[in-house]
């Protein structure tokens, strides 16, 4: 458990540097709000998983590139992580460039609320699915989950991520970052489609589940 907490601390410090350094100042309220939400949310999730699903905690804290991971997903995830870091740093710089006044305070509050919704969605997903690995692979004894959020959409983690991808640029105060979030949303949609191909081919019962639950990310839309 101590190793996971150290890993979480290292991640929080890295995110703090990534957010505050491009801004060029410590006086960045939106940045600090994001750092605090990241840290507290990550701590709460780590403590909850350590008690209720140690196996899933090991999966979530493992390296993002793994041996059993689909080769195409290694490429996708590498690009996604690098572009994500660049996106965060750019938004901090962009917010500082405009004097941290480009985004109305109400929208920044909504961005913070989006982050909270994202974390609640992730927790709900973890509660129902102990196979929710961060990489695309078929795990030993993996089975189809069709309860909780999986009864609504086939990819509740990705659906929750939509709130994250829209909430972060609002909270940091970057209109350009908000536009760029569409790139990540399209990337997640692409991954969802390709992940489903692997699940349909290798996970028993997934095709029947996909026929029952029609929507991938957004109910009544897609």
Can you describe this structure?
By secondary structure, the chain is an all-alpha fold. It is built from eight helices and no strands. The chain has helices at 2-23, 29-52, 54-60, 71-97, 105-128, 156-172, 175-202, 206-212. The radius of gyration is 18 Å and the shape is globular. The termini are far apart.
Unreliably modeled segments? none
Please report the total strand number as a whole number. 0
Q: Shape from CA axes?
A: globular
| Mean of residue pLDDT values | 93
What would a concise description of this structure say?
With 222 residues, the protein is mostly helical.
Name its key features.
single chain; 222 residues; mainly alpha; 8 helices; globular
SSE layout:
Elements: H1 2-23, H2 29-52, H3 54-60, H4 71-97, H5 105-128, H6 156-172, H7 175-202, H8 206-212
Helix pairs in contact: 1-2, 1-4, 2-3, 2-5, 4-7, 5-6, 6-7
């Amino acid at each position: 458990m101590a190793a996971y907490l150290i890993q979480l601390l290292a991640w929080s410090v890295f995110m703090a540097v990534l957010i505050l350094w491009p801004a060029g100042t410590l006086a960045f309220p939106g940045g600090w709000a994001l750092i605090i939400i990241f840290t507290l949310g990550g701590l709460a999730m780590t403590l909850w998983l350590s008690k209720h699903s140690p196996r899933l905690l090991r999966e979530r804290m493992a390296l993002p590139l793994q041996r059993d991971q689909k080769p195409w997903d290694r490429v996708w995830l590498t690009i996604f992580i690098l572009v994500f870091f660049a996106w965060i740093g750019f938004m901090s710089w962009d917010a500082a460039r405009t004097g941290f006044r480009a985004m109305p305070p109400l929208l920044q509050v909504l961005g913070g609320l989006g982050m909270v919704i994202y974390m609640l969605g992730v927790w709900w997903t973890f509660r129902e699915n102990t196979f929710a690995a961060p990489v695309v692979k078929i795990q030993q004894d993996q089975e189809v989950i069709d309860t909780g959020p999986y009864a609504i959409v086939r990819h509740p983690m990705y659906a929750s991520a939509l709130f994250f991808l829209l909430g972060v640029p609002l909270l940091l105060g970057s209109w350009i970052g908000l536009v760029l979030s569409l790139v990540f949303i399209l990337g997640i949609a692409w991954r969802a489609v390709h992940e489903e191909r692997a699940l349909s081919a290798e996970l028993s019962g997934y095709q029947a589940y996909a026929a029952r639950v029609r929507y991938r990310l957004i109910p009544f839309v897609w």
